[in-house]
Design the sequence.
């Protein structure tokens, strides 16, 4: 259900390379972020990728979703779906970079493209291994 979608993410490719993002806590391959009220999923994805990585993308292809469930009591004032929520995951191709578009002081510190095989060797968080494999299969690689 769309009401359960709190964020939108994408594996971002550039040819045979995959975008790897570093933040203070982890290395991951699914940049993206929270939806604004009433915002379309594609608009959220384009805005968040530009803010976090500086990359613009081509029309994303739906890959799947991640289903989460909070196990603790709902915090006071929590404004997002509870206890279940979803993150929609896409596969996209990078088309242009604009360093000025990155948000200053953003949580994401660095984004760089690496070969898919090298990305598999990184201590990745927040993305099951099936997503990169499915993305490559969807791209016919």
Sequence:
């Amino acid at each position: 259900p769309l009401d359960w979608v709190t964020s939108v993410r994408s594996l971002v490719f550039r040819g045979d390379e995959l975008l790897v993002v570093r933040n203070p806590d982890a290395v991951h391959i699914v940049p993206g972020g929270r939806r604004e009220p009433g915002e379309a999923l594609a608009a959220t994805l384009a805005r968040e990728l530009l803010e976090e990585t500086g990359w613009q993308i081509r029309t994303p292809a739906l890959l799947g979703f991640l289903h989460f469930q909070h196990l603790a009591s709902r915090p006071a004032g929590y404004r997002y779906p509870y206890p279940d929520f979803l993150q929609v995951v896409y596969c996209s191709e990078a088309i242009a970079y604009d360093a000025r578009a990155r948000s200053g002081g953003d949580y994401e510190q660095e984004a760089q493209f690496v070969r898919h095989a090298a990305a598999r060797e990184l201590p990745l968080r927040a993305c099951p291994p099936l997503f990169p494999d499915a993305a490559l299969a969807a791209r016919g690689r």
